[in-house]
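As promised in the previous annual report, we have extended the structural survey to additional targets. Below is the entry for Phosphatidic acid phosphatase type 2/haloperoxidase domain-containing protein.
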Amino acid sequence: MHTIRSHGTTVARSHKHDWFILLLLVIIEIILNIIHPFYRFVGKDMMSDLKYPMKDNTVPIWAVGVYAVLLPIIIFNLFYIWRRSVYDLHHSILGLLFAVLITGILTDSIKLAVGRPRPDFFWRCFPDGKDVYDQFSNVVCHGKTHEMREGHKSFPSGHTSWSFAGLGFLSLYLAGKIRAFDRKGHIAKLCIVYLPLLAAALVGVSRVDDYRHHWQDVFAGGLLGLVVATICYLQFFPPPYHTDGWGPYAHFDALDETRSSSLPAPPVNGFPMHVMQSQSARNSEFVTVPLGQNSSSTLRDVEAGRM
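The corresponding structure token record, generated without further manual editing, is:
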């Protein structure tokens, strides 16, 4: 067994650079949430698709961290209690955090660069319902600064991308752990695998129902999150359909090292190592021949086998 107590410190030290990069990603994500998005031209004739009412979020932003990050980590710990593999626990948490943060950075970077207005942009821009335009027919907003800034962050959907990153990673993890693709045709296993993906899809639907995103935003966000989750998962784990898909690469490498260290040394020239060592010791016992006046007779005695 490779537990947290026996191998936890070693595993964490071997991935200290990964944790440092993870910290840098957190800082980058914070900075991206401070930067103002590109204020795209919004003409009067475009307002017909941007006059949906402002509604509260069905899924609040704090809930995304609960079901997309905290819930998978709890499940990872439950499997650790069963398997007792610190490699599995460490790599699953590290892979999940990388998936969520990379997805968040890609999503927010695209949001800032594109600056697409949300479906409820009209009421963010003109909270009193009185629309004003300049000589180029571009909007002259007089709404709250925060609402205006968020109103230009429609593409892609952050809720959806984060949901598919976290729950998509969890789906792949469960598929490997329960051997969903073991060619035995257990549909119940597939239902378990699809459940996190269904939850992520419903979050995406809620973003359209709340008039916070267009359907294209949700589709792009879901695809982005799922692709990043798959790449991050395969960085640490074999594909779920693989024979060893239930554990990380590092777990099997550690098992191989344990087996190789417990095996006896390989034979040399067909003889076991301990036999070769004793033979070498015998060969090192040379006969010392004293040289002096009777050296020639002594050598003859050696040759005759008397010594």
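DSSP finds twelve helices and no strands in the chain. Residues 275-307 have pLDDT under 50 and may be disordered. These points will be discussed at the next consortium meeting with the crystallography subgroup.
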